[in-house]
Design brief:
Layout lengths: L8 H5 L3 H12 L2 E6 L2 E6 L2 H10 L4 E3 L3 H7 L9 H13 L3 H4 L3 H15 L6 H18 L7 H13 L12 H26 L6 H6 L7 H32 L1 H16 L12 H4 L3 H13 L5 E6 L23 E5 L1
Parallel strand pairs: 2-5
Antiparallel strand pairs: 1-2, 3-4, 4-5
Bound molecules: protoporphyrin IX containing FE (HEM).
The site of protoporphyrin IX containing FE has 15 residues, from helix 5 and helix 12.
Length: 342
């Protein structure tokens, strides 16, 4: 369980999480106790036990996160809820990502990608960091449409400080990472309040995620909107950046697949109108990429994107799986979180 309060937070977050899980598994089996981010946790690392918690007995668990993450994202964010409010948020998020909602921003996403490529010229890059920058810009476009340009730099500055504290201990004293993150979180909420107020004054319809959250009928409060905007950036950004990074790695390791993807993409670029200086991608083009799509699907299948996710038992749970000690899932105090490794 590690040191008092700190537990094994440092051991988990200072190295590849798979190394942490592998060494624990070797010592204790696929279910073991630990203590991270100020919370006692049961870590589950076998597919059978993860299926038990996330699928077959999911009604015995509720979604949760350690308190530090909840305070940073905001307690109204979708991840901490169930029932009618959760369903409403799911509907509002999905509405902003239907083909109808995103088809018109394909050329803008292409431009963001082109700007990233240009900015890499002549310098050595850290792929994951660059993918994070790219996905952040795409996230801002999907959330705020083109309105965000004015606020982009401020949003970026605050979000980057906030994310540094995501995996920090929740110690809110001057100078701690957590304290800096909480200040940045407050500033983010202020910027979002400004964007909301400008939108209300202009009264235009918007097809983006903010427009979906602000829909008159939905009746979300400003705090609920802010928590969920920050929540979606959190959910969308590192996950997508991680998939993109894995795709590049796998393509680099498989030259014949890289060749096939390149030919598919070049054929689409050649299909532009004669005389066009450079073809702008459209929605129909994205449907003509069977090889590229399969590479994305296969990467999602093979790579581990989210190392683990958290649940909290709503009542005593009994589980007796292979290689696991029954006691670990039985009669634990309610303060225990269940972290499922994937
Ligand atoms: C390929 C990249 C992505 C992966 C691998 C991924 C993975 C996941 C997983 C595993 C969960 C469930 C977590 C849990 O149950 O504890 C989740 C939830 C969620 N993700 Fe993603 N995600 C990705 C991209 C995105 C994007 C682009 C968005 C933007 C809208 C997004 C929004 C959400 C939201 C809102 C939830 C909460 C859903 C709910 O509570 O019903 N994710 N994601």
């Amino acid at each position: 369980m590690g040191w008092p309060y700190m537990g094994e937070t440092f051991q988990l977050y200072s190295q590849d999480p798979n190394v942490f899980f592998a060494s624990k598994r070797q010592r204790y089996g696929s279910i073991f106790k630990t203590h991270i981010l100020g919370c006692p946790c049961v870590m589950i690392s076998s597919p059978e036990a993860a299926k038990f918690v996330l699928v077959t007995k999911s009604h015995l668990f509720k979604p949760t996160f350690p308190a530090s993450k909840e305070r940073m994202l905001g307690k109204e964010a979708i991840f901490f809820h169930q029932g009618a409010y959760h369903m409403k948020l799911r509907k509002l998020v999905l509405r902003a990502f239907t083909p109808e909602a995103i088809r018109n921003i394909v050329p803008d996403i292409q431009n963001i990608a082109k700007d990233s490529l240009l900015s890499w010229e002549g310098r050595l890059i850290n792929t994951f960091q660059e993918m994070k920058s790219y996905t952040f810009n795409v996230a801002l476009l999907s959330i705020f449409g083109k309105d965000e340009v004015l606020y982009r730099e401020d949003l970026k500055r605050c979000y980057y400080i906030l994310e540094k504290g995501y995996n920090s201990m929740p110690i809110n004293l001057p100078g701690t990472l957590f304290n800096k993150s909480m200040k940045a979180r407050k500033e983010l909420a202020q910027i979002l309040a400004k964007i909301l107020s400008t939108r209300r004054q202009t009264k235009l319809d918007h097809n983006d995620l903010l427009g979906s959250f602000m829909g008159d009928k939905e009746g979300l409060t400003d705090d609920q909107i802010a928590d969920n905007i920050i929540g979606v950036i959190f959910a969308a950004r590192d996950t997508t950046a991680s998939v993109l990074t894995w795709i590049l790695k796998y393509l680099g390791e498989n030259p014949s697949v890289l060749q096939a993807v390149t030919e598919e993409q070049e054929a689409i670029m050649r299909s532009g109108e004669k005389g066009d200086e450079e073809k702008l991608l459209n929605w129909a083009d994205t449907k003509k990429m069977p090889i590229t799509s399969r590479v994305i699907q296969e990467t999602l299948r093979v790579a581990s994107i989210l190392s683990f996710t958290f649940r909290e038992a709503v009542e005593d749970v009994e589980y007796e799986g292979q290689n696991s000690k029954k006691a670990y899932l039985t009669k634990l105090p309610p303060s225990y979180l269940f972290a499922c490794h994937s």
